[in-house]
Specification:
The complex is a heterodimer of chains A (281) and B (422). By secondary structure, chain A is mainly alpha-helical. Chain A has a domain of 180 residues: MetI-like (MetI-like fold, Orthogonal Bundle), CATH 1.10.3720. Chain A is built from 13 helices and 2 strands; from the N terminus they run H-E-E-H-H-H-H-H-H-H-H-H-H-H-H. In chain A, strands 1-2 form a two-stranded antiparallel sheet. In chain A, a hairpin with a 2-residue loop joins strand 1 and strand 2. In chain A, helix 5 packs across helix 7 and helix 5 packs parallel to helix 11. Chain A starts with a helix and ends in a 9-residue tail after the last helix. Chain B has 422 residues and is an alpha/beta fold. Helix content of chain B is 45%, strand content 12%. Chain B contains 15 helices and 11 strands. Chain B has a 5-stranded mixed β-sheet with strand order 2-1-3-10-4, with helices on both faces. Chain B has a 4-stranded mixed β-sheet with strand order 6-7-5-8. In chain B, helix 7 packs across helix 8. The chains are: A mainly alpha (281), B alpha/beta (422).
Chain lengths: 281, 422
Amino acid sequence: MHGKALPYLLLMPATLFLCIFFLYPFALVAFEAVTRDGAFTFDNFRTMAGSWKFPVTVRNTLLLAAIVVPIQLTMALLMASVVSRLETGRSAALYVFAIPLGISDLAAGLIWLAIFDQSGFLNTLLSSLGVVDRPVMFLGYQSKLTIFIAVALAEIWRATAIMMVILVAGMGLIPKEYYEAAEVFGASPWQRFVRITLPLLRPSLQTAIILRVILAFEVFAVVAALGGTNLPVLMGETYNWQFTLQDRNVAAASALLILAISIGFTLFFLRVLRVPKEARI
Amino acid sequence: MMRALKILAGAALALSVAGGAQAQQVLFWSTQARPVEETQKMRDEVLKGFEGAVDYQVAEDGPWLTRLQAELQAGSGTIGLLGGLHGDFSTVGANLVDLSAVDVGGVKVNEAYKKLGMLGTGEQKYMPWMQATYLMAANKQALQYLPAGTDLNTITYDQLIEWSKTIAEKTGSPKFGFPAGPKGLKHRFFEGFLYPSYTGSMVTKFRSAEAETAWNKFKELWQYTNPNSTNYAFMQEPLLSGEVWVAFDHVARLADAFNKKPDDFVAFPAPAGPAGRGFMPVVAGVAIPKTSPDQEKAKALVAYMLKPETQIATLKATNFFPVVDVKLPDDMPASVKAFGPAIATMTSAPDALPALLPMGLGDLGGKFNQVYTDSFERIVLGGEDVHGVLEQQAAALKAIIDQAKAPCWAPDKPSEGACPVE
């Protein structure tokens, strides 16, 4: 009896913590999103969607995720393959790759701001090489594309490592025998990667992609640092509704929309990348 | 044994005294003097002289209001005294203590501002604390390009455009600067300067033909405006770096340029348009929330803030000018010496048209500002059709005013019920 109850007892504190600090506030936010002055209404969602910035915001957020995540996935796979193949210096390489993980997203945004700013490193470099005769404004309101590229670069630099770490762990779980057998039959490295690594890596891929996609929809500080209001994204608008426009109900609706998109994509990837029970390692 | 007990008792006593002092501190919760140096000066130079400790804490408008509302909802709080702009208080008027009985000694407080502090009720909801406004500043190098016959003290928008154009052509890059960054005060320029100067109104004539002219004029000026303006928050920085030669901003956000290089800059009034020289005075006040733990002490602090010495110290710390009758000493910073005459010229100009900060909007103030900011972003940055944007934004503006049931404020004529958007 005592032995059976123990795991649940041990899980109690974490569960309680989640209920108090996650589920309860979540319920409050959800309630605020569908009420106004105490009455049930969908007005908050209507107000949110009716704002002239809303379509741009959704487009920017989705586009950013659609471009950043695939690039990150490719890079993470490449980096993970290299790292897991290393005989010596494996942990050193892992640490170096993972350095950006230790930096807050706002700090990451500021680092890239220092590069792209009018008096930043890139301009200094270009003018000392004689490429430009006066500093170029990369992040002005007229150059939305450059802002977008800068944000994408900063995001890729900052958050690729989290995918890599998950994938490295996943690759470590794949039994060596498969590769040995494939080699005996003369499979090329590419064939081994496509036929063995990728299929067996599915569970880790699933985790990595879901985690990364959710983070991509929550992108905020990097955009705020690099683009200000020139590149509005969903999370930034939520902040705006809460603090600039002081409308908690619409802010709550906006937060719920982000949650809905995240849940939608999570379910999608769970389904697409699911691993049948009998195929699990 | 006895000695040990005595030491213990002494220690306990010391602890309790220290704890007591902690509890007696008045928490001064303010949206003003937010830059770190100003906050520090408020603590070290302005509030140090108050008998009884003050804990001066600043917050941005959103978090400031959120904490205040949380304390009001809970029915008990730790905030002793509030500091904020007129607009910050209009949201929470019903929860502020009447300050009309506060004994300010022989000090004469500006009557017009005191009336503003009543928020349309019979009670003194907040006490005026300090005032400021917005001005133009120019690098002296720019003066050689002034169009012939232009007097800085009577400058018009057309002359400003002409001037900025000449500077841009002669120096090869646009040098007019405008605080259009996310933290810049651009909305105040449209509400209190551009609109009144062209339409004589802030709200009523939002989508009039005169308003269209105003936006088109501003678009013209924007051609000669440093494109980096969308990143500026405080114009003193680009002025000091030389990126910008002529700029518009709040005096507190220009002061650093004048104090660091007193001989390089001149301050002058905001330009005039066909309807007059629109400008916006800014009034900050102090108030006591109903949940304040020690109201007597907070009231003493209110009286202290209005003492002439405190007002002068506040001016030195924040660049906000006194709201009481006081003779300024000679050792004032360069910015004060430059701004004083410019403010006097602007406010007493024959075509002066003061426009008050939005009133009676409650927590819709942010949305009201957004209407003007959105119009700017769409018309000037996005290049959308002026007429179409104004039609749409006017609908948003009307919805906000109607929801708040806010009557017109200056320069719009007083209205029965909500201020109309024609």
